[in-house]
Amino acid sequence: MSLLQLEGISKRFGRVVVADEISFQLEPGTSLGIIGPNGAGKSSMFGLISGDLKPDAGTIRFNGTELLGVKASSRCRMGIGRTYQIPQPFEHLTVFENALLAAQQGARARGTESYDVAYDALRRTGMDELANRPAGSLGLLHRKRLELSRALATRPRLLLLDEIAGGLTDPEVLGLTEVIKDLQSSGIAIIWIEHVVRALLSTVSRLLCLANGTVIADGDPHEVLASEAVRAVYLGGKIINEAPLS
Fold first, then answer.
1. By residue range, what is the domain housing residue 99?
2. What's the burial of 192, exposed, middle or buried (CB within 10 Å: 0-12/13-18/19+)?
3. Helices marked H in 59-139 — which ranges?
4. Do 97 and 128 reside in the same domain of the chain?
5. How many domains is the chain built from?
6. What confidence tens digit (pLDDT) does each residue in 46-94 have?
7. Burial of 48 (0-12, 13-18, 19+ CB in 10 A)
8. Are 152 and 190 in contact (CB under 8 A)?
């Protein structure tokens, strides 16, 4: 059974179409990269999966369960975790308290278990040494890692990563991809929206390209990037930073 299934998902805001009969599925423990120009509907698709947005048509199933009418908070507890392009920590809380809140509210962990879940999420993302730092004092890299920690503390089976490498230096991106590879090897399925294509090539086994809310390519990452249709949607017909990180 597929972990995630989208069938004929459509969504528009007035005349703006952000999803036009999108259909794809994802198997447990696998990784999918999402590329496309700004305004292609990538983040909106995450909103439709996580429950922040309601589709106009189509169905979404997670582990065989139809998600229509299921609230975002309930989807999180079912095993759908996500990050946002702009990290949104509780800045007045410490790094650990942010992860702890995610464990208690997202994973419904209680007592000492919630502390264990929170600490493990910080350890796996390399944030454990900053556990007592106020979240508001963190720089961009550590904010990104805390955003990942909070999503991980919900104990997801599916992790939606929204441009988590954006704005980072090459060494920082390389370190982050190693963390994500480790999460994937543990059995977590990952869908990663990213403009830093090198990060995707180093991590995912499949690539999907969106343009104007439509899937224009889906398959082997190198074959998708070689597609004329995919190159045509990028400025100058060329995707920047294709070489895998090393």
1. 88-155
2. buried
3. 72-78, 95-105, 111-124
4. yes
5. 2
6. 999 999 999 999 999 999 999 999 999 999 999 999 999 999 899 999 9
7. buried
8. no
